[in-house]
Amino acid sequence: MATIAPEKPEYRTSPTAYEVLVEHLKQHPEDTPQHTHPYDVSRSDIYFEDRWQPIFAEMRAKGPLHYVPESPYGPYWNVVSNKAIQHVEALPELFSSSWEHGGITILEREEEEGLELPMFIAMDRPKHTGQRRTVAPAFTPKEMKRMDEEIRQRTGELLDSLPRGEVFDWVDTVSIELTTGMLAILFGFPWEDRRLLTYWSDWAGDTEIATVKDLTAEREKVLHEMGAYFQQLWMQRAQEEPGPDLISMMINSPAMNQMDPREFMGNLVLLIVGGNDTTRNTMSGIIHAFDKFPDQRKLFEEQPDLIPNAVQECIRYQTPLAHMRRTASEDTELFGEQIKKGDKLILWYLSANRDEALFEEADKLDITRENARRQLAFGYGIHRCVGARLAELQLRILLEEMHKRRMRVHVAGDVERVRANFVHGFRKLEVEVTEF
User: Fold this and answer.
1) Which residues pair with 68 in a beta bridge?
2) Are 199 and 218 in contact (CB under 8 A)?
3) How far is the C-alpha of 362 from the C-alpha of 266, rounded, in Å?
């Protein structure tokens, strides 16, 4: 398929969202978010430096909910236990996901002013139901079976191309390439432009950049470029026979074919960030965790039948999206705390997945863990990740194809984590490949 948008940004040389933010804060240190409350875990440095675990452990030991009266994102409740998060997610009428009430991230509505993007994960019933049903057929067991061979072939070819005896960045070479390619196939997206999906995903998924008012225009420009590109794809698909790609599904759905431009952009952001950041960060997290816990890597090498459970355990251990947000639609009591209408509740999935009440020795990777499937990285209830099966399939195939090639991956250089409170993962992971 030919390139469609000649005015697209040259993403190979354009600075990423992260680079723009870092440069801005260097020049304007006064814009650096200030955090004073000990339980204000919206601060991105604790994730960048990988020192968030004891803070959440201390909160869990004291109770499932903790109020933070002041933060760069306004006041909010930390919901930190597995049980409490499931309880909140099981009451979608009482605890709203709607963008009209604040949406699904810790951001304040005024921080998103002019950039509010309705998407079905940030909608309540009944609208959520119709739009989710539109894209759900792309992720059925039947579709997963159909895609298995293609994913396996692409994964195998990429692993075979990796250099031996030299250090390279696993994030860029493997994690981004595999997940961006998968997204391109799902959208029927021009293959030569697939890295645009990564570029847009980073701009859309960075909550911290949205707090810097001076960068709002740049962020909006990037998102509008994304919308314009996809609008042309939409117009092209509308002239063609219906296909299995997500854009065709939207065009032929009464629930989605009348979306206004912002709603269209919002659902694109959801599908791109949901399909890109999450799987790509777990693909990197698996490698880092196996290197940190060599006994578990040895188990994987000796017992490939553990791979399906290892996938669940690695998702639990990594937790690629740190949080989701809900807003109370009325006054209520929750685990002994008085919640007021309009209160913001932040569901910390990475805390739920390290909850000692459910997971023994939760800070350790254990690919034999019997209840690894109880991880909450995909959420819970009506908003559970619609693409969970596809993420699991990609991760399982990656491990199977690595095992087939007796591939062992060592961390051999720089490790740089994402500096963010929403997306939780790796920006760089320098590795070397050997054999076992």
Assistant:
1) 76
2) no
3) 35
CB neighbour class for 308 (10 Å; exposed up to 12, middle 13-18, buried from 19): middle
Residue 314 corresponds to which amino acid? C
Those residues with Cβ within 8 angstroms of residue 31's Cβ, 6 or more apart along the chain or in another chain: 24, 25, 212, 214
Considering only the C-alpha atoms of the chain, give the largest distance between any 2 of them, rounded to a whole number of Å.
Answer: 61
Instruction: Express each pLDDT in 66-96 by its tens digit.
Output: 999 999 999 999 999 999 999 999 999 999 9
Q: Where are the beta strands (DSSP E) in 115-237?
A: 168-169
pTM for this one? 0.89
C-alpha angle 340-341-346 in degrees, rounded to nearest 5:
75
Residue type, 344: K
Long-range contacts from 290-295, C-beta under 8 angstroms, 24+ separation: 290/365, 290/409, 291/409, 291/410, 291/411, 292/365, 293/364, 293/365
Residue 425: phi and psi, rounded to 5, are -175, -150
List, in order of start, the domains of the chain with CATH numbers. Answer: 17-435 (1.10.630.10)
What does the pLDDT read at residue 128? 65
Which of the 8 DSSP states describes residue 205? H
> Which tokens is 55 given?
């803070």
DSSP 159-174: HHHS-SSS-EEHIIII
For the chain, the distance separating the N- and C-terminal CA atoms, rounded to the nearest angstrom, is 41
* Distance from chain centroid for Cα 147: 21
Q: Where are the beta strands (DSSP E) in 141-195?
A: 168-169
Altogether, the residues listed in the chain come to a count of: 436
